[in-house]
Amino acid sequence: MIITANGVRLFFEKQGQGRPVILLHGNSENHGIFRRLARELADDYTVYALDTRGHGKSQRVKELHYADMAADVAAFIHALRLEDEKSLLYGFSDGGIVGLLVAGAWPGLLGGLAVSGASLNPQSTTDGMLRLMRWTYRLTRSAKFKLMLEEPDITAADLAKITVPTLVLAGQNDMIKEEHTRRIAAGIAGSKLQILPGESHTSYVINSPKLAPLLRPFFAELPYKAD
Q1: Over the Cα atoms of the chain, what is R_g?
Q2: In the chain, what percentage of residues exceed pLDDT 70?
Q3: What is the mean pLDDT of residues 53-66?
Q4: Mean pLDDT, rounded, for 47-67
Q5: Which pLDDT value is given to residue 196?
């Protein structure tokens, strides 16, 4: 399905019934990385798996900025009249960054937030991966890699604005430095942190059977009053 939100055409797939859960993929990916997760959550939730701007089947744009993506998600929630449903949001990597920005800038819009492999700034990325990203950008001049090299810039003050219940996940062998993942969790009052032994940035996420069991217990404990 296509919906216009924040002036941009966004593609999404919807399935299931119950409390809304919004899924946001990472850089250079699309909603397809969540096919298994969406199917496994659909018995209890209405799952909205989005393609963010410039990705998948959503509208192409000349430049990419995380703040614009966050505004897209907020507008998406309003366009579908989900603001009273206290939607849950799970974001992976870039999607996690967007989730943090949404929760901080639109307090009260979400009922719960889970992020994995999110970063505070480009220096959150391990040195080797950062060198690879710079090399790839020099070759491709891709707006997607430019985004990761220049943004985000999430401060302690930004994290302190997040009041929604939050779960922070990362792999033990993540491309995001563990100290930065711990800084995210420490900066959000009452958040839960799980560093997953033996996992990489993507190993437990992309159409993995490991992801739903991590999210379900967290989602299930969040208060929700359906209409």
Answers
A1: 16
A2: 99
A3: 97
A4: 98
A5: 98
- The single-letter code of the amino acid at 192 is K
Place of tokens 């299931």: 16
Structure-token pair, residue 203: 């190993």
pLDDT at 227: 43
Match 């990597």 to its residue by tokens: 93
Which residue has tokens 């993942």?
181
Strand ranges of the sheet holding 8-16, from the earlier edge strand across to the other edge = 2-5, 8-16, 45-50, 19-24, 87-92, 110-116, 166-173, 192-200
**Contacts with 22 (C-beta within 8 Å, 6 or more apart), sequence order:** 48, 50, 73, 76, 77, 87, 88, 89, 90
Place of tokens 């950062």: 130
Residues belonging to the chain: 227
How do strand 45-50 and strand 8-16 relate by DSSP bridges? antiparallel
Helix intervals (H) in the chain: 35-41, 66-79, 94-105, 127-140, 143-150, 156-160, 178-187, 211-220
Beta bridge partners of 176: 125
Give the model confidence (pLDDT) of 106-136 as tens digits: 999 999 999 999 999 999 999 999 999 999 9
The CATH topology of domain 2-220 is: Rossmann fold (3.40.50)
Amino acid residing at 38: A
pLDDT at residue 226 greater than cutoff 70: no
Query: Which amino acid, residue 26?
Result: G
